[in-house]
Specification:
single chain, alpha/beta, nine-stranded mixed sheet, five-stranded mixed sheet, globular
Length: 494
């Protein structure tokens, strides 16, 4: 257990996230009475009699021994960004000295490190200056600095073809899956439990789409992404109705890409792929996660390695020429040799893009809730394993084009999307870098309304539960309406 005791709780999340990076899986308390039971107690308080001077303390227990660390620093809390950076730099130095371990990303704990680099590129700063800034401000390692800037440069080029003012994207969420994977905490429900009722869900989505289509008249729809869950968990008839419903409601003449995240190979059939072909879908995903059968069985993927290969080849035979494959490094029980084997199979298939995820153990995932059942399966993720995936992707001609991080990632690494030039998923860049409005419909989705004049995002979330979503659709529309009212208000103030 880790106990955090602060005079000022404004920076609790920042301190907690950095402690989580060093000590993943630990529980947290904010009660002083728990401090005696905690192996780590972190405290932040003002230095008496010294204006803008603060003390950061760590009390560490290990093998019956106790050690107290402390540093003082000066900052002005009225400048929150500067104060946050100073606190995290101070805490990072203390944790680094205590553990003898550097983190690959330094004290960066946010999910969008490339946003730092991209913002500075847009302002005219050089790649060299950005790398120096990340080193000095965040203690980011050289390899991650180089990767971050490389991705940001590629994102800047891709975003040059989008319109942040008049353009927008559409996300349609299908919260159904054949089964729920061991590591998953996304919004998904077993498709079997919704047999005969998926039409009700589509009806609700179409009402939400009608609202969006009306409100976005005069704007250019630039990307469409159907995600989940597993969209191809739907029947061919439902899939046809969904895509047809989108195309009949929105002008498609300015759409640059239309992605359907097919995902689970056990949900893919020739009939469903034919529906996608008939509608001219430009990009699909077929996601194996690993090419080791024992791991697939463990994590609850009810498909075989042979089925992955068969569905991939079927998609190729039917004419799909932009296929992404998702992989996860750090799955329970997998070794570097297993990752190398997976990458060799991927190399033979030669998809147009590969997304390499580092396993993130979410609080609501079975892998965390039932962790006692999986103690025999070690979770390993090392820089060498990440380097192996990167090297293989680059040898296939795939270049990194988007990047993001998650809490509790194995090895404290990142997720990276690699693609052949010209085959990148523009939606992935837009959702990560928040440079365009993304109108989202469906259970568990989040609309992000972009105000380019202020480089600001406003959000409206839909509930995760399917029944709650369908029964409270009017409330979902009111949440979106508030975003449009904010836009009109800002327009009058200009």
């Amino acid at each position: 257990m880790i106990t955090i005791l602060l005079d000022n709780g404004s920076f609790e999340q920042d301190i907690r996230e950095l402690l989580m990076a060093y000590f993943p899986g630990e529980t947290f308390s904010h009660r002083e009475e728990d401090a005696s039971e905690a192996f780590c107690v972190a405290g932040l308080s003002e230095v008496p009699g010294e204006e803008h001077r603060y003390e950061l303390r760590l009390r560490m227990k290990k093998d019956g021994n106790e050690e107290t660390l402390s540093q003082t620093f000066s900052t002005d809390f009225s400048d929150r960004s500067r104060a946050k950076n100073e606190i995290k730099r101070c805490l990072y130095r203390m944790l680094r000295d205590y553990t003898g371990r550097d983190l690959p990303w330094g004290n960066l704990t946010g999910i969008r490190p490339t946003k730092i680099a991209l913002t500075k590129l847009f302002s005219g700063e050089s790649p060299e200056a950005i790398r120096d800034y990340m080193k000095e401000t965040y203690y980011t390692g050289e390899e991650k600095r180089n990767l971050c800037v490389e991705v940001a440069q590629r994102e800047k080029e891709l975003l040059s073809g989008t319109d942040p003012v008049n353009g927008y994207s559409l996300y349609a969420g299908i919260p159904f899956c054949p089964t729920t994977c061991l590591y998953c905490s996304f919004t998904s429900f077993p498709i079997g439990a919704w047999k005969g009722r998926t039409g009700e869900y589509l009806d609700a989505m179409f009402r939400e789409m009608d609202y969006i289509a009306e409100k976005m008249q005069g704007k250019m729809l630039q990307t469409v992404y159907i995600g989940g869950g597993t969209p191809t968990a739907l029947s061919p008839e439902d899939l046809d109705r969904l895509i047809g419903g989108i195309k009949s409601r929105f002008p498609m003449d300015s759409v640059k890409e239309f992605t359907v995240e097919s995902g689970r190979p056990d949900s893919i059939t020739a009939e469903k792929l034919q529906v996608l072909r008939d509608y001219g879908i430009s990009r699909i995903s077929i996601n194996p996660q690993t090419m080791k059968q024992e791991t697939l069985d463990l994590i609850g993927r009810r498909h075989t390695v042979e089925e992955v290969l068969a569905k991939y080849r079927l998609a190729r035979e039917m004419g799909f020429d932009n296929i992404n494959m998702d992989l996860i490094v750090g799955l329970p029980g997998e070794t570097p040799e297993d990752v190398a084997h997976t990458m060799e199979v991927i190399r033979e298939l030669r998809p147009e893009s590969v997304t390499v995820h580092s396993l993130a153990i979410k609080r609501a995932a079975r892998l965390n809730i039932q962790k006692e059942n999986y103690r025999d399966y070690q979770i390993i993720n090392t820089q060498d394993m990440i380097d192996l995936t990167a090297r293989c992707c680059r040898e296939m001609g795939l270049l990194p084009y988007y990047l993001y991080r998650q809490k509790n990632m194995a090895g404290n690494f990142e997720n990276v999307g690699y693609a052949l030039p010209g085959k990148e998923c523009l939606y992935n860049v837009l959702i990560m870098e928040e440079q365009q409005t993304i109108m989202a419909c469906g259970a568990g989705t989040t609309t992000k309304f972009y105000h380019p004049e202020e480089n600001r995002m406003e959000r409206a979330e839909n509930p995760k539960d399917v029944n709650t979503y369908m029964n409270n659709l009017e409330e979902m529309l009111r949440r979106k309406e508030a975003l449009f009212q904010d836009e009109r208000k800002n327009g009058k103030n200009e």
